[in-house]
């Protein structure tokens, strides 16, 4: 007859590679238990191991994927240590240690054994062996472990322990109180750990070392240029002589021009004196005045520097500006042009950072102070209408700085919440957007325009914000509703929200609801925000 109502217990096998010979004995012991006691008591113990119960997957760190696939679904674990501790994970000394901590944090049974067998010192990694010794010392105050001498000793001890535990579990001697083993989820202020009051903060980008260095770099460049001023332009007659000497007799302006289709005659009428653009002067002067620097008129002297446009007789009608003058004159012009570019970028940084510094930000985290881990957690925040600043509403950086800010992950630096020794970082829904925009065009005649490049950078910048602000946002008549999903949160731990929350106006309060896999009821709470201006 078919058996009905069978209770399945999943047993995790978590062992470093140097005890693989014990896995067969372990599985034989489980099969013997199932034959001797399982059929009689309508239970079955099923072993789980990464080699048979995992599958290829992406989207998270490898050990976390294993935890999600089968580790957390196990009811007990068996561990054997000898000389190897295992490969480190992002959070623990080895995958085995992380799996042990997963089980212990959920108050699940761990059968742990340390093999005390002879070893060949030349074949032992002493660093690994020391980790085993240290872990054994650390674990002695957290539970009971067995010491085994060989395979036969392990089979005897493990079979006995397996029967003792599961039979007592069946008979009711081992009681698991679901009321006691429950998660307790609550939202707190990341900076103060308070669940009563939350204080908005502002960034101080304008006071950063980055801005200070940019300003000092420009000031130093101005000082250098002040100490290397060129004389004023010469008289009209001299200029005409110099210009005429370049193009007289229809000779090429440059020896290389003889092989090119250049309209040499047109050079005579194209030669003009080079002057610093008025917009350049105004931009640099404004910066100088704000930093108590007075620029003399001679600062803009370029000597007798002149320019002309070379007309290339090619199908696409390309033209290129060239300069006539000494190296000092050409370098002076180039230096002032570079100075203007730096000042322009500096102004864009200041304007953008000033906007960001004006945003009220709050950093939240969710804490589980209960005695049980929890999964499939949804957090719903209800922000009064007109208060929330959505990331799509943030203006884009200026044309000259946006690409650099993307390259240095500016949005991550300003808006993400970094993990600490007590609070883990949110890492579930952040998606990386593939960027093909920076691949150069193979055709030199079809390069992107400045405006097209800026539009692409704006899209990339928005992508970086989208991946960070990984909330679902819903609109209602009275609220902006944000929903955040968390796959797993172990007990006595906290996890930061994926990003700060930004506000146009500080609301008096934000209400929230939390639901999860193991919470019997919806958790409701109130977040009171302290308005510093009130």
TrEMBL record:
It comes from the Bacteria. PROSITE patterns: PROKAR_LIPOPROTEIN. This is DUF4062 domain-containing protein.
């Amino acid at each position: 007859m078919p058996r009905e109502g069978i209770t399945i217990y999943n047993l995790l096998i978590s062992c470093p590679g140097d005890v693989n010979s014990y896995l067969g004995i372990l599985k034989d012991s489980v099969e013997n238990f199932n034959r001797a006691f399982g059929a009689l008591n309508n239970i079955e113990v099923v072993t789980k191991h990464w080699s048979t119960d995992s599958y290829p997957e992406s989207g998270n760190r490898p050990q976390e994927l294993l935890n999600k696939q089968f580790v957390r679904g196990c009811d007990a674990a068996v561990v054997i240590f000898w000389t190897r501790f295992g490969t480190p994970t992002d959070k623990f000394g080895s995958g085995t240690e992380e799996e042990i901590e997963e089980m212990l944090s959920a108050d699940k049974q761990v059968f742990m054994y340390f093999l005390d067998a002879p070893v060949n010192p030349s074949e032992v990694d002493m660093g690994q062996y020391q980790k085993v010794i240290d872990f054994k010392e650390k674990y002695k105050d957290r539970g009971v472990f067995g010491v085994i001498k060989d395979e036969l000793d392990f089979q005897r001890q493990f079979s006995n322990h397996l029967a003792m535990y599961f039979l007592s579990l069946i008979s009711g001697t081992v009681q698991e109180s679901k009321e006691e083993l429950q998660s307790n989820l609550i939202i707190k202020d990341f900076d103060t750990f308070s669940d009563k009051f939350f204080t908005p903060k502002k960034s101080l980008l304008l006071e950063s070392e980055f801005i200070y260095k940019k300003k000092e770099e420009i000031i130093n460049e101005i000082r250098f240029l002040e100490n290397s001023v060129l004389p004023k332009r010469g008289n009209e007659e001299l200029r005409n002589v110099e210009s005429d000497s370049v193009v007289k007799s229809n000779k090429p302006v440059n020896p290389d021009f003889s092989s090119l289709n250049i309209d040499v005659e047109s050079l005579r009428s194209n030669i003009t004196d080079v002057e610093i653009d008025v917009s350049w002067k105004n931009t640099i002067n404004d910066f100088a005045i704000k930093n108590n620097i007075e620029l003399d008129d001679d600062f803009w002297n370029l000597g007798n520097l002149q320019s002309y446009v070379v007309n290339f007789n090619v199908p696409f009608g390309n033209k290129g500006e060239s300069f006539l003058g000494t190296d000092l004159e050409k370098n002076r012009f180039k230096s002032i042009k570079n100075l203007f570019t730096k000042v322009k970028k500096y102004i864009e940084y200041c304007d953008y950072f000033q906007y960001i510094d004006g945003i009220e930000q709050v950093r939240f985290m969710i804490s589980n102070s209960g005695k049980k881990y929890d999964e499939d957690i949804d957090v719903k925040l209800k922000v009064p209408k007109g208060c929330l600043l959505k990331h799509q509403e943030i203006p884009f950086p200026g044309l000259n700085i946006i690409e650099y800010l993307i390259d240095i992950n500016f949005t991550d630096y300003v808006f993400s919440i970094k993990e600490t020794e007590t609070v883990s970082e949110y890492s579930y829904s952040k998606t990386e957007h593939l960027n093909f925009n920076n691949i150069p065009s193979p055709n030199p005649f079809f390069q992107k325009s400045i405006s097209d490049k800026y539009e692409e950078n704006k899209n990339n910048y928005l992508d970086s914000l989208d991946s960070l602000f990984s909330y679902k946002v819903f609109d209602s008549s009275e609220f902006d509703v944000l929903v955040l999903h968390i796959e797993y949160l172990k007990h006595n731990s906290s996890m930061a929200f994926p990003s700060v929350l930004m506000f146009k106006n500080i609301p008096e309060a934000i209400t929230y609801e939390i639901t999860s896999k193991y919470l019997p009821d919806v958790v409701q709470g109130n977040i009171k925000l302290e308005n510093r201006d009130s």
